[in-house]
UniProtKB/TrEMBL annotation:
Membrane topology per record: Multi-pass membrane protein
GO cellular component terms, A-Z: plasma membrane
GO molecular function, one term: transmembrane transporter activity
One Gene Ontology term from the biological process aspect of the record: siderophore-iron import into cell
CDD domains reported in the protein's UniProt record: TM_ABC_iron-siderophores_like
Identification of the protein by name: Iron ABC transporter permease
Record-annotated membrane-spanning stretches: 12-38, 59-76, 88-108, 115-132, 144-165, 186-210, 230-263, 275-296, 302-321
Localization terms from the record: Cell membrane
SUPFAM superfamilies documented for this protein: ABC transporter involved in vitamin B12 uptake, BtuC
Family recorded in the similarity comment: Belongs to the binding-protein-dependent transport system permease family. FecCD subfamily.
Length: 333
């Protein structure tokens, strides 16, 4: 038993080390790969300025966004016990995007944009839960997902109305609809990085409680855990982290849904180890997707949200098909 435990620990360390190396490689690609190839040397002040003022903030924002969105996706799926739950399907991303668009519409300073995003994101979460409980009188996850999709569609329609009312803001608002890190600045990195790090540390500190919740409400209550309070607290932390990220990047869908599922299926590890792997894989994937979108048809830049959708949709279809086959085989057996 001791040998098996040591082997599993060694394997987990090896997996984490591999993904950490991939993350470092992804960061290097994002920093140094351009439309003309790999550039390690900068010959003049202009190239250095472009590197520090544009490339470095963009890389950091992509890294932060990938880690934060995947971590929040894991929390939604774990707490709600549904593999389809994330900020996109629950409508929180659309609510946060609409809040940011409202701030842009009225010319609010950049410091207050995340506040609008958080406000509308939390409002969406509350509405989704209230609609769900009103419809089924219980906390039914399937109904919650449908409610989130409907409310998300409503906010998307409202966002389009804003575009019609203020055409001069089209470029800045459209970026929110497809998800992009191209407008990254030092201030956006500071805001998103600070909030994301705090939220991730809080979620790591609560990982023991999240693990107990996975055992089921009855066992958790037996162990003296206030399941409803912990669940709501985790959802609120994840919602705030998502809202702040989306307030500067726009809707980046699917990454928070796909990566936690793949990690859970491929690696049978503890909730803490899943968190670490999700952070490494989420950051790597978003960096790679942004690099591809930046160089594939340069000088035109494809928003990272579109690249991720192209990658994620086939993976999502595969996961759905294999999940259905697994359920059918379980029923037949």
């Amino acid at each position: 038993m001791q040998i098996k435990s040591t082997t599993n620990s060694t394997r987990l360390i090896s997996v984490i080390a591999i993904w950490f190396f991939i993350l470092l490689l992804s960061i290097s690609m994002s920093l140094f790969v351009g439309s003309t190839g790999v550039s390690w040397h900068f010959d003049n002040q202009l190239e250095w300025t472009i590197f520090y003022k544009l490339r470095v903030p963009r890389t950091l924002l992509a890294l932060i966004a990938g880690m934060g969105l995947v971590m929040s996706g894991q929390i939604y799926q774990t707490i709600l016990n549904n593999p389809l739950a994330d900020s996109f399907t629950l409508g929180l991303a659309s609510g946060a995007t609409f809040g940011s668009a409202i701030a842009v519409f009225f010319g609010v300073t950049i410091w207050y944009v995340p506040l609008f995003s958080i406000l509308f994101s939390l409002f969406t979460l509350i509405v989704v839960v209230l609609v769900t409980e009103t419809m089924v009188k219980t906390f039914h996850v399937a109904t919650m997902i449908l409610s989130g999709i409907f409310i998300g569609a409503f906010f998307n329609a409202a966002l389009y109305i804003l575009l019609l009312l203020k055409p001069d803001k089209v470029n800045s608002m459209v970026s929110y609809m497809f998800g992009s890190v191209s407008s990254a600045e030092q201030i956006t990195v500071i805001i998103t990085g600070t909030v994301t790090i705090i939220c991730i540390l809080l979620l790591f500190s609560m990982s023991h409680f999240i693990k107990i919740i996975q055992l089921g409400d009855d066992k958790a209550l037996t162990l003296g855990l206030n399941v409803r309070f912990i669940s709501w607290l985790c959802l609120l932390i994840a919602a705030v982290m998502t809202a702040v990220i989306i307030s500067f990047t726009g809707i980046i869908g699917f990454i928070g849904m796909i990566v936690p599922q793949v990690v859970k299926r491929v690696y049978s590890v503890s909730i803490q180890a899943q968190m670490v792997l999700n952070l490494l894989i989420g950051g790597s994937l978003l960096l790679i997707a942004d690099t591809i979108g930046r160089v594939i048809i340069s000088p035109i830049q494809i928003p990272v949200g579109i690249i991720l959708s192209i990658i994620a949709i086939p993976v999502m279809m595969y996961l759905m098909i294999t999940e259905q086959r697994k359920k059918n085989s379980g029923i037949n057996s």
